[in-house]
Amino acid sequence: MKKESFGQRLSRLRKEKGLTQEDIANRITISPQAVSKWENDVSSPDIDYLTSLADILGVSVDELLGRKEEAKASKEPQAEASETADEVVDDEDKKSGDRIVINDDGVHLEDDDGGQVHITEEGVEVIDEDGHSVRRHKFGDYKPHPSAWIVPSVVGALALIGYILLGLLWTDAQMGWRMGWLLLLLVPIASSIENAIWHKKICNFAYPILVIGAYIALGFLGQHFGFRGWDFYWFLFLTIPAFYLIFSPIDKYVIHKNDNKKE
What secondary structure letter does DSSP report for 252? Predict the structure, then answer.
């Protein structure tokens, strides 16, 4: 088996990552022509560039230089005919021509048509049979919907204004200041409503916070107006487990099952 040159190895690793020579050049601030010379074995990169290249390609410097393969070949002359710790292939995959490689860099899948899927610590990348990256998802790229911060911000501002107004206007026994802070509970409640709608999960609604707020409000009102509040409305807490017992199956078997059918 012909030994792979540095340029061939660099070209292969670059294509596996779905990068162009210009992408490599831009990241380490050199010209694309220099990368082309490296891949054609016309010249070799300075030692200062090796670490940067290895980081970009998601491999170690030893693997980039081919030392990993040389050490493996010297220890296991029959490695191609046996299963190793760095490569695990299912019997079914052998029959179909699919190839699964698990190594320090991640999990790599390649089918018999040349399509590839690479799962690394950076994310997931899908490459078609022509070597083009058709889908890429980097871990940490998730950006929450704007409503996730707009809703609590607006409700929080309104709740604060309402608290101040209630304290100033309802001066009887300072009930406004005593009870008005409960309006601040509207912030997590409103945020949970947005979350429940966005993710289509009723159980994401902060029902326990609603119950706590209602119980405290009824307790204060009962104490002020002379009806049973604190010692009577405790049964509201029994509705919390009932809420989840009712809506958890609806979330799991009705809403999301219908979404899967639409897809």
Answer: I
Contact residues for 193 (Cβ-Cβ < 8 A; gap 6+): 151, 205
Reading across the β-sheet that carries 106-110, which strands appear in turn?
99-103, 106-110, 116-120, 123-127, 133-138
d(CA 41, CA 39): 5
pLDDT at res. 95: 45
70, amino acid identity: E
Which residues is 137 bridged to in the sheet?
124
Task: Name the stretches of the chain with pLDDT < 50.
Answer: 78-96, 141-142, 260-263
Determine the Cα–Cα distance for residues 26 and 134; give it in Å rounded to an integer.
21
Q: Which residues pair with 84 in a beta bridge?
A: 87
Contact 213, 180 (CB under 8 A): no
pLDDT value at residue 151: 86
Give the E-state strand segments of the chain in sequence order.
99-103, 106-110, 116-120, 123-127, 133-138
Strands 123-127 and 106-110: unpaired
Residue 214 sits at φ, ψ, to 5 deg, of: -65, -40
